[in-house]
Design a protein that fits this description.
heterodimer; A: about 350 residues; two-stranded antiparallel ribbon; globular; B: alpha/beta; 3 domains; six-stranded mixed sheet; four-stranded antiparallel sheet; 14 strands; elongated
Chain lengths: ~350, ~600
């Protein structure tokens, strides 16, 4: 291996690693706030990428039907409760978010030929279509079980993941898609080409991480989420509703997922089930950070990206084996360095 | 006899199956059996033990590939490869379990996902295992010279294994080890304080689940006589968990129900959904995923308990009657007046909060030492330090002259200290008798295998007899077979005392035993404690009921804000100005 290949592989590794880092952050966030191990994170990546690909192909993405259906389920679940409790004032916002919004998206899709829109609008439309599913999935699948044990929530996560994979197959078919690169610009670095796409991904990830930092440090909602992560009961006593915290961090996680999907779509071919492995690599990063530390999780994810990239050079068939076996020494190291005090759960 | 009737009918139907059913149905039943073996392991692991694994399919694959490779390449006997496969799987499970079980419960499932994925890719890429094409030409199995060639013949072997697996898991759960396994979910701290080695119990159930999966894989390889990586992917691992959860994750029969339901439903949906949707693909997973979420939201225990509730026959939970048995041996008593517990300068910090500051106290054999103080004074924290449930930050604690600094709570329990908890820690679903029998855990020695094979009955009878005797002693004979959760709170506290006594301790730590008791019950409790004292037991008592304390205690230590403010006889304490100011003064003015 010469320097040029080394740099090329490093570039690939950093690009993927930046995306895994984003996902790792979302996973740590969700776990800290809700104790949910969010396996379906990867499906949001795939949905984002494939929705964008459908739009670019001039097709109506199937995700719009899912958005409408989920919205209706939420309206039935919450609406019945609100009517029973006589909280009529909350009905309009429920209807706007869960029925009006999906209908508006559908109307836009049918009114405008999506293939002719400029790229930025297509990206925006993909975000608007898929991100609202985050809080909806939280409402439908997780909220009724908010008090359950980590184990039960994990099984729910796997169930949601499985259902979303099946729906992904239904919406997008078994064939993969790859979107055109956002930029064809290329630089030269020590004799190796440095692609504009790589820079874009790294810059976008860094911007998103900075944005998240600002959100958590400077905004009330961000502080509310941090408070919930630190002490759930305490935050609740201070008037931060667990439901709100749950929906908020699912919105963030869905947005991070879709955004990552859009970033990764021009780099690799995404299939309906690609999200799982991508999300799990984010997980390996998150676990390196003990599902608790954001910077360590991000660094861990970067490491996963590099490891994956270099192992694909030496033993490409064993790429996945190497990446996922790496979790074992990581877990060993964590288990030897942390003293776990059993939390009692029913 | 009536109790066993459903089982007899089930076995009879099973036996007649291959003679009456068409080939297709027999094949389907074979698969249900193979899946049920794996699901039974998950019932033990997830439903009972509160742990889970998504990597069971990888263990199945390990069992299948081990036999496939060894029998085709080296011509090893399938019966030998079964043992090798089991040993290999157990070794892998031991490593995985050792690494992940030391941490939070969710690291095991995450570790198994990663392991399941890597093993799948490994199977698919290793040259000598045939890559994605797999291994063909696996030999048949012969049973006493009878070659199991057809699916109909193999059927009997599969279902024999299913029944044996179910039976041995049921036997195991109804035993000394079984009670400690059942305590893992929601009672681990209590179990440790009763001397149960909970990390070991977790590893044991993970090993059993993995070995059952490997046996299923061995059967699969010799039934199909062909293996490739597909059936051992993480998706199949997820499906195994779905079977256990949908069927009823707390019951061995739920495993069979779940395996049957998912297999039949999958068959039907795979025909029906592509027609409905006009596309081909595994759309049944959408239905399964949504069904899982609904089951977990609406009927977390799965479908088997729902069915059971509609049946006239009730399966009895736990033992219902006692067999006469020789009493268990008792430990040697320390001489009355000898020092049992000597704690000095004990400090416990929670972050910046000092809950105990240089606390000292001692307890002698044959005395009642009471620890009193206002709420939040740090009494229960001191208890947790002494029993190492939550060890002290600094200071010396010696029990029977031996430092307990490096001991965990189960080691201390083994040396003869037993305790109750301020917040009652009983397993509500289990009977009072079984709860108390957990206290006698350290007085038995029969292990997992003996329990599964029912070789432990002699000892089990003695343990239960001991538990029953302690229950009678505390006056709860009438409630012996009722679920502990159905008792009033005061009675539950008394059950905790019986459980502590079942361990035959020389030092008893009681955390607010009289709270929630009526006047007569309190008197009965005081009489019991006096009797224990006269037998030479040392008792350390935390209690708020002053009448109870003053009438019973030999010596009293008063705590306030984590520190000792006074020590002496009840009379001395009652006239101590500092105590009156800090504590009793408030009580007097309130009264």
């Amino acid at each position: 291996m010469d320097l040029q290949i080394f740099l090329l592989l490093g570039q690939d590794g950093v690009t993927n690693g930046a995306i895994y880092a984003l996902l790792a952050l979302a996973l740590v966030l969700i776990f800290a706030v809700t104790r949910i191990i969010f396996i379906p994170q990867g499906e949001f990546v795939a949905y984002g990428a494939l929705t964008l690909a459908s739009l670019q192909a001039g097709k109506i993405p199937g995700t719009v039907w899912l958005l409408l259906a989920l919205g209706l389920v939420v309206i039935v679940l919450d609406g019945v409760q609100m009517l029973r409790e006589g909280r009529y004032g909350k009905l309009p916002s429920l209807l706007i978010f869960n029925l009006g919004w999906p209908l508006l998206c559908a109307a836009v899709l049918f009114a405008l030929p999506p293939g002719d829109l400029p790229l930025a609008l297509q990206v925006l439309l993909s975000l608007l279509l898929v991100v609202p599913m985050g809080p909806m999935v939280y409402r439908v699948a997780y909220q009724p079980l908010a008090g359950a044990s980590v184990l039960v929530l994990l099984i729910v996560s796997v169930a949601v993941h499985v259902a979303m994979i099946g729906l992904g197959l239904l919406f997008f078919g078994a064939e993969g898609s790859r979107t055109p690169a956002f930029t064809e610009v290329s630089f030269e670095l020590a004799g190796a080409p440095l692609q504009g796409q790589t820079l874009l991904v790294v810059a976008a990830s860094a911007a998103l991480i900075a944005g998240l930092y600002f959100f958590f440090e400077r905004t009330l909602y961000g502080k509310a989420l941090r408070a919930t992560a630190m002490n759930r009961t305490g935050a609740r006593l201070m008037g931060i509703a667990p439901t709100l915290a749950g929906k908020l961090c699912f919105t963030l996680a869905a947005a991070i997922g879709v955004f990552s999907g859009i970033l990764i779509a021009p780099i690799t071919t995404i299939y309906y089930d690609s999200g799982f492995l991508i999300g799990l690599k984010g997980f390996v990063g998150a676990i390196i950070g003990g599902l608790a530390s954001y910077p360590v999780a991000a660094l861990g994810a970067l490491l996963v990206g590099l490891l994956e990239s270099y192992s694909s050079f030496w033993a490409s068939a064993y790429k996945e084996v190497i990446v996922f076996t790496m979790i074992i020494p990581v877990l060993l190291w964590r288990s030897l360095t942390t003293r776990h005090v059993e939390e009692e759960e029913e | 006899m009536m109790r066993h009737l459903p089982l007899i009918v089930f076995v009879a139907l099973l036996g007649a199956g291959p003679l009456l059913l068409p080939e297709f149905t027999v094949t389907l039943l074979n698969y249900i059996g193979l899946y049920a073996i794996v699901a039974v392991g998950l019932v033990l692991l997830t439903g009972v033990g509160g742990l889970t694994s998504f990597g069971q399919a990888a263990f199945v694959g390990l069992g299948a590939y081990t036999t496939a490779w060894l029998t085709t390449v080296y011509g090893v006997s399938p019966w030998l490869t079964l043992l090798i496969g089991i040993a290999l799987t157990a070794a892998v499970a031991l490593c995985l379990g050792f690494i992940t079980l030391r941490m939070g419960g969710h690291y095991l499932p995450l570790g198994t996902i990663a392991w399941g994925i890597s093993l799948y890719f490994l199977f698919g890429n290793v040259e000598f295992l045939g890559g994605h094409t797999g291994i063909t030409g696996i030999p048949t199995v012969s049973l006493f010279g009878w070659e199991l060639k057809s699916a109909r013949e193999f059927y009997y072997l599969i279902w024999l294994v299913v029944l044996l697996a179910m039976l041995s898991v049921r036997n195991l759960l109804d035993s000394r080890v079984g009670r400690s396994i059942r305590a893992l979910k929601g009672g681990a701290v209590m179990a440790e304080a009763m001397g149960v080695n909970t990390p070991q119990a977790k590893i044991v159930i993970f090993l059993i689940a993995a070995v059952l999966a490997a046996i299923s894989g061995w059967l699969y390889a010799h039934l199909q006589r062909f293996v490739n990586p597909t059936p051992f992917s993480i998706n199949q691992g997820i499906e195994y968990l779905f079977m256990a959860v949908i069927g009823g994750v707390g019951h061995v029969w739920g495993a069979v129900l779940g395996a049957g339901l998912i297999t039949v439903l999958k068959q039907w949906l795979q025909d029906f959904l592509p027609q409905l949707l006009g596309q081909s693909g595994n759309f049944e997973i959408i239905v399964f995923g949504i069904a899982m979420v609904l089951i977990l939201q609406r009927a977390r225990d799965g479908l088997w308990p729902v069915i059971l509730r509609r049946l006239p026959l009730r399966s009895a939970g736990g033992p219902r009657q006692l067999v006469a048995a020789e009493p268990l041996p008792r430990r040697a008593r320390p001489a009355p007046g000898s020092v049992l517990l000597d704690a000095s300068e004990v400090t416990k910090r929670f972050g910046g909060l000092v809950a105990n500051n240089r606390m000292s106290l001692s307890v002698k054999a044959g005395e009642v030492m009471a620890l009193i103080g206002p709420n939040g004074a740090g009494k229960s924290t001191m208890f947790n330090c002494v029993s190492a449930v939550n060890p002290a930050t600094e200071g010396k604690i010696a029990f029977l002259g031996e430092s307990t600094v490096d001991l965990v709570s189960r080691d201390i329990a083994r040396r003869g200290m037993s305790r109750t908890f301020q917040h009652v820690k009983l397993l509500g679903q289990m009977s009072v008798l079984e709860n108390v029998a957990i206290g006698a855990h350290l007085r038995g020695r029969q292990g997992t295998l003996a329990a599964a094979l029912r070789l432990d009955r002699g000892e089990e009878a003695r343990l239960l007899a001991e538990a029953a005797q302690q229950i009678e002693r505390v006056g709860l004979k009438e409630q012996m077979f009722e679920p502990a959760g159905s008792l009033a709170l005061g009675q539950q506290r008394i059950v905790e005392i019986a459980r502590a006594l079942a361990s035959d301790p020389c030092l008893l730590l009681l955390d607010e035993p009289a709270a929630g008791l009526r006047y007569l019950e309190k008197q009965a409790l005081a009489d019991l404690l006096r009797k224990l004292r006269s037998e030479g037991m040392g008792i350390l008592l935390v209690e708020h009921d002053m009448e109870f304390v003053m009438g019973l205690a030999d010596r009293i230590v008063v705590m306030e804000f984590g520190e000792k403010i006074a020590e002496g006889t009840p009379a001395e304490i009652q006239s101590n100005p500092r105590v009156l100011e800090a504590y009793l003064g408030g009580v007097e003015s309130a009264a």
